[in-house]
Amino acid sequence: MRLFIAIELPRKTRDALAALQSELKKSGSDVKWVAPENIHLTLKFIGETDEAGLKNILRAMEEAAKGHCAFTMRAASCGAFPNTNSPRVIWVGLSKGSEETKEIAEGLEVKLAAIGIPKEERPFSSHITLGRTRSSLNRDKLVSSLNALEGKPLEEEFMVTKVTLFKSTLTPKGAVYEALQEASLKTT
């Protein structure tokens, strides 16, 4: 099974991000958009794992989560990797909670590395993926749209109280996510 650990977003935030996607879709660019119900903030992509490894992953996730306090997260304006003039991944950053998500992701890396799951080579960047470009079709229009939206905050704020282990099943219509287990963050 294909697994990842993420922060789920409340419906109101996903709806606001879906509205942002709709605005960007007007560019007519060739982008594979994340389905609104699947929008989340990935903390760690694990990949293919068998049933035997699942218990160790769950234990590592719970240990990492209990070392961090619940926090407030706020979605900010959109951007792109590697940059807005050459977008491959379209994302929304955080104006609040970025440091906390980074610390949780780093804690997960340490705990999961201890059970044999390789560490990510790139440094963690707190972001919510909205879509990935598939070709350069209408890239100029997409770049204009991204530049017009850059710096315009969403102001969608919510409390993060848990992290979730998801199973991702790839289908011809796109990925289907299933929440397998949650691990609570400390509350004060």
Description:
The chain is α+β, with helices and mostly antiparallel strands and 188 residues long. The protein has a single domain, classed as Cyclic phosphodiesterase (Cyclic Phosphodiesterase, Chain: A), CATH 3.90.1140.10. The protein is 30% helix and 40% strand. The strands form 2 sheets. A 5-stranded antiparallel beta sheet has the order 2-6-5-4-7, sandwiched between helices. Helix 2 crosses helix 3.
Q: What is this structure's SSE topology?
A:
Elements: E1 2-8, H1 11-25, E2 31-33, E3 40-48, H2 51-65, E4 71-83, E5 86-96, H3 98-113, E6 128-133, H4 139-149, E7 156-160, E8 162-171, E9 174-184
Antiparallel strand pairs: 1-3, 1-8, 2-6, 4-5, 4-7, 5-6, 8-9
Short account of what is shown:
By secondary structure, the chain is α+β, with helices and mostly antiparallel strands. It is built from four helices and nine strands, in the order E-H-E-E-H-E-E-H-E-H-E-E-E.
Q: Class, according to the CATH hierarchy?
A: Alpha Beta
Radius of gyration, whole Å: 17 Å
Largest sheet geometry: 5 strands, antiparallel
Q: What percent of the residues sit in helical stretches (DSSP H or I)?
A: 25-40%
Number of helices: 4
Strand order of the largest sheet: 2-6-5-4-7
Estimated structural class: alpha+beta
Q: Spans with pLDDT under 50 lasting ≥5 residues?
A: none
The SSE order reads EHEEHEEHEHEEE
Q: Could you tell me the mean pLDDT?
A: 94
Q: Give the CATH H-level superfamily.
A: Cyclic phosphodiesterase
Fold-level CATH name: Cyclic Phosphodiesterase, Chain: A
Tell me the number of strands. Answer: 9
Q: What percent strand? A: 35-45%
Overall number of structural domains: 1
Examine the secondary-structure arrangement and name the CATH architecture: Alpha-Beta Complex
